[in-house]
Structure formats: C-alpha cells, structure tokens
Amino acid sequence: MKKNIILISAWLAIAPLVQAQSGNVFSVEAGYTNPKDAKGGVFAGLMIGRALDQSVNVSLGVDYFKKSYSEESVVATQNEQGLTSNTYTTAVDYNRTIIPINLVMDARIPTSRYFGYFIRGGLSYQLLFSEETNYELDQKETRRFRGLGWIGAAGFFYHIGRRSTLMMGATYNSCEVSRDIEQSEQGLPISERVDLSGIGFRLGVSLDL
User: Do the beta carbons of residue 205 and residue 176 sit within 8 Å?
Assistant: First the structure.
C-alpha cells in the first residue's frame, strides 16, 4: 500500500506541469529483458504522456512480459564407449507474468534535423504473477509479488515523419519484488523476494498527437 502511495504521489506532483503544456505523446514499444531471477524474453508496452517542451516528455506506461520455462534435474548418467549421456526430468514448470507500471521522463538531444540521442529515467511499480508446478512435491501454486524500483534507458532516435519518431536503446531495470508470508515454521513472519533487475533493449515508435 505504501509503495502505491509513493507512485501516485509522484504522478500528482508533476501533473500540474504536464497539464500546463499542450501536446500528447503516445508510444508503442517492444524489446527484450533479462531478469536476474527469471528467464529472459520479449515484452510489449504502451506509454502515454505529455510534452513539457520540444525535448522533454513525461509519460505513464505499462509493459507486459510473459515467459514459460522448466527447471530440470539429472536423474541418470550413462557412459558407453567413452560417450557420456544424461537423462533429465522436469522438476518445476514456471509460467511467469511481469507487469511493470512506469512513470518516466524522456530527454532528447538532437544532433541533426532527423537524428539525435535520448535518455530516460523514472520510477517503476512492478507486479509478478508466478504459476509454478513442482512435480517432485506434486504441488501447484500461484504466487503474487510486487515491488517498487527504477528504470533507465539511453539510445538514439530518428524522425521518420512529421509527428512520428523511431526510438531504440539499451535499458536497465532495478527492482526486487516480494510477497509476505504469514508465518514460518518458527512462528515468525517472513517474506519471499524475486530480483527482476537486468539489462535489455527497447524499440519503439513515438507519436506526437
């Protein structure tokens, strides 16, 4: 609850500045991310915001990342005529969905009429839904995590039209999500954490409406 209040308060603090200027900005983006405690994969996202001036935008956006993968273990090893082979079995199946909600500011640095560089930074509130099937323990569970972090990006942009801009750059996400567990075996409250931090890249098209 406290993290929700922080994110909402940050948006309310800049809202008067955003509303003071005309010019809506809408972006469609996609890319690749590689979370530390999960398998990497592609994501898609949308952002909508306002232009503070010709070079600075403030936007609120959401990304969607879904990845299914398995954790395997070796159950047998054979060595025949100098050739070693392993037999694997699936220990755990993961079906993970990550939804970051981002409040960011973009600053563009033009170097010519059509080309330039940009930097991005902001806050991120991230949700993780993890569906897990443990075949060794014969258990299936859906766990939900949440956490507040920050994101950054840098790259280049190219004006492909009067109101459309292509943007491509490297990204870094810093966020650790957690969930509370009522009590441990000793009767003390504990929590579980998943580190979603990692680097990636992002490609998008920004439209000035």
Answer: no
Domains of the chain: 2-73+86-208 (2.40.160.20)
Q: Are 159 and 114 spatial neighbours (Cβ–Cβ below 8 Å)?
A: yes
- Distance (Å, rounded) from C-alpha 156 to C-alpha 26? 18
State the Cα–Cα distance between residues 180 and 192, nearest whole angstrom. 7
Give the predicted TM-score (pTM) of the model. 0.78
pLDDT in tens, 129-149: 999 888 777 788 888 999 999
**Is the Cα dihedral 41, 4, 104, 149 positive or negative?**
negative
Residues 6 or more apart from 159 whose CB is under 8 A from it?
A: 113, 114, 115, 165, 166
